[in-house]
Amino acid sequence: MEGFMDCIQYLAVVSFLGFLSGRALPKRIFRADRFPFQSFAFEKNGEIYEKLGIRHWKGRVPDMSRIFPKLIPSKDISENEHLPPQERYEMMVQETCIAELVHDLLCLAGLVCIRIWKQTGGVVVSVLYAVGNLIFVMIQRYNRPRFLAILKRYGGHSERKRVCRI
């Protein structure tokens, strides 16, 4: 049981640091139209996630914007009414890039549990942690093409603020 608790403590610290890192990253470095954030052909702009029923369950998973509303913009576009609609969608594209990167890195960081708990339990904890983070990666990859399509209807970027250099 000691290995389990060591993994839990490690993952709690890594998750917290991942959250802080995501908030501190310079937003301008993300490119939604380039690897790794660009949709892959097999994703068909998020359609593959529709087949997994994502629309029905994505609202039931924890959302950091609801837990820390002062730190992360709300996913509810209408709650960001202080910004013009185009900038709201640019911001959401940016947030999907950041969240995807953080969750990808957390998946990798979780592999350390295999070394912390050198029994089958370490592998199980690592796999469960990766699956838990991959769910959030899928949500970002599902949402981003939808936000980009809406943004395209607005004519691309706002001139005042180029977010995520779409």
Describe the structure.
The protein has 166 residues and is mainly alpha-helical. It has helices spanning 2-24, 47-51, 54-57, 64-67, 85-109, 113-116, 120-153. Helix 1 (2-24) runs antiparallel to helix 5, helix 1 runs parallel beside helix 7 and helix 5 runs antiparallel to helix 7 (120-153). The longest helix is centred in the C-terminal third of the chain and has 34 residues, at 120-153.
Brief characterization of the structure:
This protein has 7 helices and no strands.
Structure keywords:
disordered C terminus; 166 residues; mainly alpha
Distance from N terminus to C terminus (CA atoms, Å) equals 47 Å
Instruction: Please tell me the overall pLDDT.
Output: 86
Q: What structural category characterises the helix and strand content?
A: mainly alpha
Q: How much of the residues is beta strand, in percent?
A: under 5%
* Secondary structure: helix percent: 55-70%
Number of separate helices: 7
Shape: globular
Chart the SSEs and their pairings.
Blueprint: H1 2-24, H2 47-51, H3 54-57, H4 64-67, H5 85-109, H6 113-116, H7 120-153
Helix pairs in contact: 1-5, 1-7, 5-7
